[in-house]
Structure prediction request, 70 residues.
Amino acid sequence: DVLLNKIPLIFQKEIYATACIFGGVLYFILLNTPVPNIPSDLVCIAAVVVVRLLAVRNNWSLPDIARPKE
Prediction:
């Protein structure tokens, strides 16, 4: 990203990577509970899909990152 002078995927307006990070954090939390693996996997997958669908339906987006002026 730095070499190509592109904004990293996590900082783009659309909520793709943010939903995945949310799912990853939820998975990490569920690993430290007595919930079995398969149900926790399904909960995390569902959470990522729901967050992404809600973002599309409600036009949610991340704020723009201000680039430094040259």
Summary: The longest helix spans residues 37-57. Residues 2 and 41 are 33 Å apart (CA to CA). The radius of gyration is 16 Å. The chain is about 50% helix and 0% strand.
